[in-house]
């Protein structure tokens, strides 16, 4: 996971890389929630362009991070999702609760 801050401080971006599965979902979720606790901006963009596998544990992690941000008044946006990841999130109904960036990954 790599973090970058935008010059206007209204949003920060984190890049997820690799697989989010049973072996890594808890750790990624904990790191993202800790980041949200320390965030000085109202929006966190989670760039998923380099995300490999996204299993049900990863989707549950996304929901947990979304709720954690909402409690703190921070919008968490999941960006750069592949068509395959977006379809899995839509089929599972997570597209109705998560903020998914409407632009497809290039």
Write the layout of secondary structure elements.
Blueprint: E1 2-5, E2 11-20, H1 25-38, E3 43-54, H2 56-71, E4 75-79, H3 83-92, E5 99-100
Parallel strand pairs: 2-3, 3-4, 4-5
Antiparallel strand pairs: 1-2
Helix pairs in contact: 1-2
What do you see in this structure?
The chain is of the alpha/beta class and 106 residues long. It contains three helices and five strands. It has helices at 25-38, 56-71, 83-92; strands at 2-5, 11-20, 43-54, 75-79, 99-100. It has a five-stranded mixed β-sheet with strand order 1-2-3-4-5, covered by helices on one side. Helix 1 runs parallel beside helix 2. The longest helix is centred in the middle third of the chain and has 16 residues, at 56-71. The chain is globular.
Please give a quick description of this structure.
By secondary structure, the chain is an alpha/beta fold.
Strand arrangement, largest sheet?
1-2-3-4-5
Task: Kindly name the structural category.
Answer: alpha/beta
The pLDDT mean sits at 90
Largest sheet: 5 strands, mixed
Topology pattern, helix = H, strand = E:
EEHEHEHE
The backbone outline, from C-alpha atoms, is globular
Which bin fits the share of residues in helices?
25-40%
Q: What low-confidence regions span 5 or more consecutive residues with pLDDT below 50? A: 1-7
DSSP strand tally = 5
How large is the share of residues in beta strands?
25-35%
The number of distinct helices, counting runs of at least 4 residues, comes to: 3
- Radius of gyration computed on alpha carbons: 13 Å
Distance between the termini: 20 Å
């Amino acid at each position: 996971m790599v973090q970058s801050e935008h010059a206007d401080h209204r949003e920060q971006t984190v890049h997820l890389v690799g697989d989010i599965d049973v072996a890594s979902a808890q750790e990624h979720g904990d790191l993202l929630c800790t980041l949200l606790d320390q965030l000085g901006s109202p929006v966190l963009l989670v760039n998923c362009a380099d995300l490999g596998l996204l299993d049900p544990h990863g989707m549950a992690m996304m929901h947990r991070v979304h709720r954690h941000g909402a409690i703190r008044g921070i919008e968490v946006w999941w960006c750069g999702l592949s068509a395959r990841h977006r379809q899995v999130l839509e089929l599972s109904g997570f597209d109705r609760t998560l903020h998914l960036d409407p632009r497809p990954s290039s």
